[in-house]
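Researcher: Going back to the complex we discussed earlier. I've cleaned up the inputs and rechecked each line, so this should be the final set. Can you rerun the prediction on the complete assembly and write out the structure?
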Amino acid sequence: MKQVKVGILGATSYTGVELVKLLRKHSCASVAFVTSQSYEGKRMSEVFPEMLGICDATLTSPEKALAIGADCVFSCMPHAVSATTCLPFITAGTRMVDLSADFRIRDLASYTAWYKVEHPCPQYVRSAVFGLPEHYRTQIATASIVANPGCYPTSIMLPLLPLLKNPGTLVAAIIADSKSGVSGAGRSLKLTSHYVEVNENFSAYSIGRKHRHLAEIDQELSAAAGRDIKITFTPHLVPATRGILSTVYFQTNRTAQECLDIVKKAYAAEPFVRVRGPDDLPCLKGVVHSNYCDITFAGGGDGQPVIAVSAIDNLVKGASGQALQNMNIMFGLDEQDGLR
Amino acid sequence: MKQVKVGILGATSYTGVELVKLLRKHSCASVAFVTSQSYEGKRMSEVFPEMLGICDATLTSPEKALAIGADCVFSCMPHAVSATTCLPFITAGTRMVDLSADFRIRDLASYTAWYKVEHPCPQYVRSAVFGLPEHYRTQIATASIVANPGCYPTSIMLPLLPLLKNPGTLVAAIIADSKSGVSGAGRSLKLTSHYVEVNENFSAYSIGRKHRHLAEIDQELSAAAGRDIKITFTPHLVPATRGILSTVYFQTNRTAQECLDIVKKAYAAEPFVRVRGPDDLPCLKGVVHSNYCDITFAGGGDGQPVIAVSAIDNLVKGASGQALQNMNIMFGLDEQDGLR
Amino acid sequence: MKQVKVGILGATSYTGVELVKLLRKHSCASVAFVTSQSYEGKRMSEVFPEMLGICDATLTSPEKALAIGADCVFSCMPHAVSATTCLPFITAGTRMVDLSADFRIRDLASYTAWYKVEHPCPQYVRSAVFGLPEHYRTQIATASIVANPGCYPTSIMLPLLPLLKNPGTLVAAIIADSKSGVSGAGRSLKLTSHYVEVNENFSAYSIGRKHRHLAEIDQELSAAAGRDIKITFTPHLVPATRGILSTVYFQTNRTAQECLDIVKKAYAAEPFVRVRGPDDLPCLKGVVHSNYCDITFAGGGDGQPVIAVSAIDNLVKGASGQALQNMNIMFGLDEQDGLR
Amino acid sequence: MKQVKVGILGATSYTGVELVKLLRKHSCASVAFVTSQSYEGKRMSEVFPEMLGICDATLTSPEKALAIGADCVFSCMPHAVSATTCLPFITAGTRMVDLSADFRIRDLASYTAWYKVEHPCPQYVRSAVFGLPEHYRTQIATASIVANPGCYPTSIMLPLLPLLKNPGTLVAAIIADSKSGVSGAGRSLKLTSHYVEVNENFSAYSIGRKHRHLAEIDQELSAAAGRDIKITFTPHLVPATRGILSTVYFQTNRTAQECLDIVKKAYAAEPFVRVRGPDDLPCLKGVVHSNYCDITFAGGGDGQPVIAVSAIDNLVKGASGQALQNMNIMFGLDEQDGLR
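Model: Rerun complete. Updated structure for the full complex:
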């Protein structure tokens, strides 16, 4: 069987360690290196006690990792740092899945406007493929750089894209009210991730078109619709570790059932999208620790918006699981390998 | 000082015990009786261990309570049961605050449609006053029956009512995306309140104009606007004990700042509404265990909806605290007594 | 490859659904039937939304299951019900792993004293094997009935048994202070599992040699030591879904490091016991969703007790994972199949 | 009525803000200043959103606070920093309650051994009074410096001290297995207080006589018993915001009921100790947001240890509530003022 040698940059982030865990279950991928700025020289199992005996690999630097080499590199580093660190791998011809935002935004001015930094290697942006398998599978298969979508965007785009692409279906006034578990904020210490501040709390943030994920959401929805779309998006913090639930309101000429039928048909062959009945609402518990995106539609009628509800695990379908799905596609493997 | 003799029907519900706790801090109200169907004959402190030495009163039946009598009766019983049980107290001329929905809905057909039951004493519905002090203070002062608003409605109406009442302010396409802690579902056992099912979960329910609170929300918003309003409302369950946060989207001819100014002015003299700055978003932690409703406005511009965010403690401003505020108004007491 | 046809009785309990999930990852076991009293006729995925597309099998009755047949039956039913329901399978020669307490207690009088019921099929108790693979592997391999240990007992016995079996090591005055997540209390509705009662709470229960698990703990520790042992055991409820952490105090003639060495040596070849360093304390996060039991030793010296800390996932090594490990041993399969 | 002018040093710690909240309910104490190193110049309500309209005081420096002056200063600063910062207030004759460990340990060598620092003002240690009102009320009344006990020690000493002081009662082999909510770890950012690390986790720490609170526990228990006592103490972290539950095992010549009777008698007149029945076990939910310490006794017989279970709110009876109780005693006020 084909063997894929994998490297993980930024392996001590929550998405990094999730990727290591998923890769353990993969039938033909092996981890060649794991890197970390903060923990270089330590073992993965010293940083994450649950990894003892599972991944005791020593964390190395990106420089040393380059010498080791890999067939596929995953970057779990923050934006800008990611592209800069990956550049030598790209130059060396290594195929990569970037979990940061660096290669998601096609328009460099938009990237700079949202991320407040010049792109470190703009020459590679155009050739990068947006890694949403349900909509870019063919391009992902041959891509050198796959830009893994953001967690919120994945949960918002999956229910909407089939409708926006559907001729005769009008969609307008999109409002995405999203709720995320705290692991989405990462492992860096900050008061907004401090246990006592989050526990028994619930809050909105980046309200009013301030969240960076809007760049890719608008880009992809506009591309699908063939016209300029600017959604309303409010992220919220749920006192839970994992998961995103998005409640998406929109005006449409379709009933909720018609929306459901269109989306169900669009995803009929998809292994990781479950379109549920209108009385069988997606919830976090239904998807955490899996690569599923659960979707349904309700509401509508009498001038009311139709409401999509979607749920994913932010660390799996919203990050590392989708990254692995992308790798499987890139290397011609069973798309569900490591993700069942 | 004037003494108010208080009785609590359904005292072993979460709203009932919250009321008992609040009344302990009241300077001139004393609890004359507490009733319970399930725990009659037990002491409050046997049902709620935290009440030992605080409220050791023996739970009695509504029948025996009637003989004891009170200046003010609070009903924390479920709808229909509440009106039926309260009827003898009403007949006896006792003033009451009903925390159930029984006296909130002015239109009897609407009540029956939403609550699936004939009203037990329709003759008293018309004279009941909707107990939202910020908007019905004068009427509450002399009311015999005060219908304490629902928790979700309180969080949704408070930010919207001043705008709807404001001449020249247009408000349309209202969508309330609300998130509630689990105590809102009460103390009755059900799988949806079972720890393992709720913990690390987040879910929507009663989606698409199915939740009963729509009856009073539409009624009050329509009354304020002078036209028929039907909002979109999606309640969600937060894995936390207390609190409601509502994110309310609406189209308007005002900017977020103008909305904020209008609402701030409307509530300038209100002791329990805090209109916060647009960068100082309300959150559950800011209001739990208090009678405050925190409100702010953001978003808008460029065709985007303005977004109100409001937060309350569902058991305090959303139930027992507001009930006590109503009692204070009814009996000419300091409105903040017991609620500071 | 050998195929094992598996049946699950009581599949809608938390241990039942956990078993179904683990079996999905097994290379050669397939689920032939799932039974449920409460949900007969429904699909697993109607009861557990996360199972949609994963296990859509229809829940049947034990009677119908008997006609289907299986190589190995797992019982996830409550004690007494379990032995009664399993009897026809046993009679039919089906090998079984019983997750209830029915076949754990060798002394029938003790069983009746603790479980307040006559044993439904006492004739099978003697031949049943206590399913703690680390100490009964040989007997499990050929057993017809394997009595899967309780969750608390597994966490308490694993650190102690090698010491009690070690010649020259004295162990006395054992106190096990254990803390369990709420899934250990099962899926049946009760106030002590009601979200609002458990959340932000922490409590002891069955204090003072009142918990039924004492029967098997004393039995197994006494058997290992060759003398009568009665431990002190206090279970506590942690506001978390999964996991048990036991802090076990005992007087001994060994230092903590010597205890650690003895236990490390005893479990050197064990795939699912991780003996950690004394500064690398086991915690729930380190073991949940795995079949590991993490153990270390600290304290001692100057008359102080040595302290063992152990952690397991109550639903995996404490129940369904260990049951699957037992099945693997019984059928001569890779012991880690489905459990990696 | 006598007015007490109060100052709070380190007011943006969790104990500081809790003290501000408690003082709001006090009938005759007013806050003259609040200080903070990190937030000087900001308002309390900018740091803690819930304080808007409740405490909008501007945080100042200890130097400026000295000029303002107060009748009673509370220090919520870390050890060593506390004594150093308080020194000018002490010199100026201000009475103080120190919530840090600085004045708890009478033996300077022990202080230095446990806290790894020379005491900043050893000349004041001897005259300081250990602020456990139930055992030092008379001395507290006239003290200049009251050393407010630690949270764990309060929960462990209260059930044990009456037994140790009781002639004819033997107590030996004390093991305190304590469990604390996360607010006990303070507001400083650290990975062990990071939401994702704590949530759904449970862990032991400082195991084997390593926790600093042992210094004061051993000191006070030894003083009460008139002999040298060294207890075994294991702290654990509970995934909850507030509360400590201690399960304390000890050998004794008394039954559990006798222990209960002795302790009940000792605390008969105490407003903040509730000795509960042996079947009415203390739990966090019973005491959080109150100044109560709940206690009961169980176990014993047949060579088994007797088991005390005690529960407090770590931020109230374990810190700020007890500090306020001490102030009330120092200034001859109603001991329960602000704490009902």
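Model: Worth noting: The CA atoms of residues 126 and 188 of chain D lie 31 Å apart.
Researcher: Good, that matches what I expected from the previous run.
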